[in-house]
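ok, trying the design again with the full structure, not the truncated one.
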């Protein structure tokens, strides 16, 4: 009669423990590699966002400078409504010249849109940072609306006014330029001052948000 093999429980338990440890290490390494990959992906997104914000900031600064120049021109024109001062003969030309300078802003939002629609926004860990990113790009719509309103106002009112009230052949001549006596012209000037000021407030606020986001992203990288 053959003897049954003797099972070495200590050896079996040791083998099981080794297998469990090996599996745990494999899972740990896999999770570490996955987390590292996600972190690298998040850093790439943040770097791209930083580049986009720097480009937007530069564009917004250019618009801000142009708006400042336009506001100064309009305030300069408005002084002629209240006093007889030198330069009255150039008022119409100065106003007309700035009408042909549209303000265009095309935000660099490809990275933001990719984060939104790919589901990768979860890779950005900071809740405060994520909220600020969403808020910032959401408020670009305000700038675009203000710019669009200004452009539409110029086409609907300013260009029409000049078309109906000005002899373009005498635009740079002194005779026949009695625009300052026309109340519609003063209304246009002060309306533009209000629109330009609102546009500049929005642009400057966006520049400040760009600076804040760029600083916060640098801290995350």
């Amino acid at each position: 009669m053959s003897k049954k093999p003797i099972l070495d429980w200590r050896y079996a338990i040791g083998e099981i423990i080794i297998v469990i440890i090996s599996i745990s290490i494999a899972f740990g390494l896999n999770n570490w590699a996955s987390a590292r990959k996600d972190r690298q992906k998040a850093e790439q997104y943040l770097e791209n966002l930083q580049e986009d914000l720097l480009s937007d900031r530069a564009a917004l600064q250019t618009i801000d400078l142009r708006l400042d120049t336009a506001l100064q021109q309009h305030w300069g024109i408005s002084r002629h409504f209240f006093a007889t001062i030198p330069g009255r003969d150039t008022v119409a030309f100065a106003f007309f010249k700035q009408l042909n300078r549209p303000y265009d802003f095309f935000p660099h939002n490809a990275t933001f849109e990719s984060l939104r629609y790919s589901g990768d926004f979860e890779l950005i860990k900071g809740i405060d940072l994520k909220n600020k990113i969403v808020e910032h790009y959401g408020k670009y719509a305000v700038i675009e609306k203000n710019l669009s309103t200004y452009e539409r106002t110029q086409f609907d009112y300013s260009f029409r006014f000049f078309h109906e009230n000005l002899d373009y052949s005498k635009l740079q001549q002194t005779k026949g330029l009695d625009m300052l006596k026309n109340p519609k012209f003063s209304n246009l000037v002060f309306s533009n001052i209000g629109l330009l000021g609102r546009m500049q407030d929005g642009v400057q606020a966006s520049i400040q948000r760009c600076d804040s986001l760029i600083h916060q992203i640098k801290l995350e990288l």
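Keeping the full-length input from now on. The chain is about 75% helix and 0% strand.
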